Amino acid sequence: MAKTRDEIFEQVKDVLVDALGLDDDEVTAEATLMGDLGAESIDFLDIIFRLQKAFDIEVPREELFPAEAVMSNTDFVSGGKLTEKGLAEIRSKMPHTDLSEFEQDPDVNKIADLFTVDAIVNFVENKVNV
Amino acid sequence: MRWIWIDKFLEFKSGESAVSLKNVTLAEEHLHDHFPGFPIMPECLMIEAMAQTAGILVGEARKFQEKVILAKVKKAVFYHYVCPGDTITLHAQIESIAPEAASTNGEIMRGDQRIAQISLMFSHIDNNLAGKQFPEENFVFTDMFNSLLTGFVEQDTPPEQST
Q: Nearest by CB to A72, which of B71, B101, B130?
């Protein structure tokens, strides 16, 4: 049976509360994983393992957090900003993420802000409700 | 020298679970200061002992091709003190394992009594620290660790005998 977006959000919230040691009210849809919730790189893997278990889905790291690979490719980054090619790559790899604001100023330092709670909910929603 | 906080394995199911044993003794000098007149095994060393038990389990699951390091203590809850003369067993299970990392759950027991619950994350560092280079040799799993597994898993090169 398909899950509603609210149900998915609640489950994602539980995952993040456990993985990052947070209080319930800290996890909002707009919260960024690294900036607001204090996640570090190993936490991403912890979150992935927990999402797989909670929703019984496969979560390849490069699908949920593809920007890591984009940032290390010199074709995609120039002068601290994503190139057109890099942006195109991000667009195709991160369909679950709202990129409209980022595209105005594709500074690599802002890539971390793309990893929001909402992006995870979108990702899970696409996976479980196919 | 490395401190080894487990004395031997009791069970070893490759890629699944392991049980190790540690005898705690007043011959361990740190217990004299932790605490004077009230010696107990430090909780941080129980975490390390679990990290060694679970870390060897995770390493063996990939045939020691990965350098496995402790990356995160997900949970550590302690229910009782561990004193000199106690024998504790460390029960570790692999919860998830991927090319970059693994997560484990574990319990420390004294007989039937639960002493602690410890859940850990391990990183396979060659696959997980974007471009950083590490020495070729596996500095995590030394001969001392390998010798603990003698009799439990098939080993390509048996530990060298000291003469």
A: B130
